[in-house]
Amino acid sequence: MEIFSKLESEVRSYSRGWPVVFDRAQGSMLYDENGKGYLDFFAGAGALNYGHNNPALKQALIDYIARDGVTHALDMFTVAKRDFLETLQEKILGPRELDYKVVFPGPGGANAVEAALKLARKVTGKESVINFTNAFHGMTLGALSVTGNSMKRGGAGVPLVHATPMPYDKYFDGAYPDFLYFERLLEDSGSGLNEPAAVIVEALQGEGGINAARLEWLKGLSDLCERHNILLILDDVQMGCGRTGPFFSFEDAGIKPDIVCLSKSIGGYGLPLALTLIKPELDVWEPGEHNGTFRGINPAFVTATEALRVYWSDDKLEQSTRAKGERIGSVFDEIVQAHPEANLVAKGRGLARGIEFASGELAGSVCAEAFDRGLLMETSGPDGEVMKLLPALTINDAELEQGLEIIGESVRAVLTK
């Protein structure tokens, strides 16, 4: 462990809560260098929706590397990229009647968000963007400007400008009609609100505290944007690729955003890949106007393509995710009811679930207890007050029940101290 503290920056975070050296991983299990197994309810912060070293994806990757398939090609045409685009159209976009062109903005989610913000401003000629309370969109300057967390924003070191926060769904606990404040500012020439180029939103805020927007709220936001000629950017970096059930987290709301940001599990295997999906009429880039060295890592195209073929040729994974999510929800409701004095709140949708505690200290203590029992979870929310679950969508029933039992034990251990 000494080499980590000696050479690695103090900025490291996850390793502080899980102070072991991991060596192997398979499915929903991580193993440390001594062979001890840990049930993973974190899944690479949502980058491993299909589990660790998924056998089907691994074989496709091994076969590609073994035949000397192209690894790095900037944005040149490759067989791997063609296969991916054809499969994305066949399995995802076509069946959902979504007409998007694909931008490969760079390897991570923040790259997808930066491209979306940049393009929205180029298309509209406007600078301002509307974001939401407790939003998280990435750690680069543009993405931070539309992020809510004060600690993360403070790390920028410069003013974060051209973004205005609005209340996310249920921010005022239903005390006011949806979008009362937002729409009033838009319609009042004396409000001082700069006319926005775009609105950026998560259908379910993961880092913000497992805040799931109501479907009618998302539909209302889409309608508002259409009425006021504002582009709608849907950040599906963490909640896309089936995390809430359907492939896109916004599908159940029946909306079609102008721009969609994808990363994390779009690569299938945990390899870096990001997409910014844009309606064709927004494709006004000049060649090379937005570029980067790692805009399409071909091994990630290979595993992404295989994941779409294996898991999105039918609705089995979607239905399984919904059912497992309901199972977690029912257990969390039981935990809440068993501890009325603690004022717990069960939250989430699909396989993005959480329990909100009175403080970050309590939620962190529950995660620490779970780690001691062999389960990996993290916290989220502005003060880390939400115990957050993002298990692999492929987790089996026995593993799910084992994890839920550990969570129940961990909550009891903390709340009865």
UniProtKB/TrEMBL annotation:
The enzyme's first-digit EC class, named in words, is transferase
Which pathway does the database say it acts in? Amine and polyamine biosynthesis; ectoine biosynthesis; L-ectoine from L-aspartate 4-semialdehyde: step 1/3
Keyword check for Transferase, yes or no. yes
BP terms from Gene Ontology: antibiotic biosynthetic process; ectoine biosynthetic process
An example of a GO molecular function for this protein is: diaminobutyrate-pyruvate transaminase activity
Record EC number: 2.6.1.76
Q: Which InterPro entries match?
A: Aminotrans_3, Aminotrans_3_PPA_site, Dat, Ectoine_EctB, PyrdxlP-dep_Trfase, PyrdxlP-dep_Trfase_major, PyrdxlP-dep_Trfase_small
User: What PANTHER family does this protein's entry cite?
Assistant: DIAMINOBUTYRATE--2-OXOGLUTARATE AMINOTRANSFERASE, DIAMINOBUTYRATE--2-OXOGLUTARATE TRANSAMINASE
Give the protein's recorded name.
Answer: Diaminobutyrate--2-oxoglutarate transaminase
Q: Which organism is it from?
A: Amycolatopsis albispora
Top-level taxonomy: Bacteria, Bacillati, Actinomycetota, Actinomycetes, Pseudonocardiales
